[in-house]
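[audit] Reproducing an earlier prediction to check determinism. Same input, same settings, fresh worker. If the tokens differ from the archived copy the diff job will pick it up downstream; this log only records the rerun itself.
[audit] input (128 residues):
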Amino acid sequence: MIYKYIFYKVYQWVSEWFDPFSPQVTVTIIMSFLPLSVLYSVLIGLRLLGLMEITFEYIGNTETIVFGVIFLLLLVFNQVYFFSINNWREVIVFFRARELSGKPKLIAYIYLSLTGFIYIVLFLFLGY
């Protein structure tokens, strides 16, 4: 339920501000990047503490290839989950008719805020 609500909120934002023509495809791509931001920040933190030696310097690097494979797996999962298993239209209609409340909504907002904050800080300001 939380993952579907995150899809709905990202869909709502993308359809209003970014891609009004085919937001469902853009949302699945964005949803594939969200978990990578948390993993990337943990790896950068371990590198800054000196616990792990990680470099993302070139395309053929092992870490870059692993991130690419994880992204592709997440993209395939999101495409299958929201287009084959759960119809994305039904998810959107469900949450437009009923507003989620309580702990699941709070968890979804914390997750979206955390991943958005990580992308803003790490990629825009620190240049990683």
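[audit] rerun output stored. Observation attached for the diff report: The radius of gyration is 16 Å.
[audit] end
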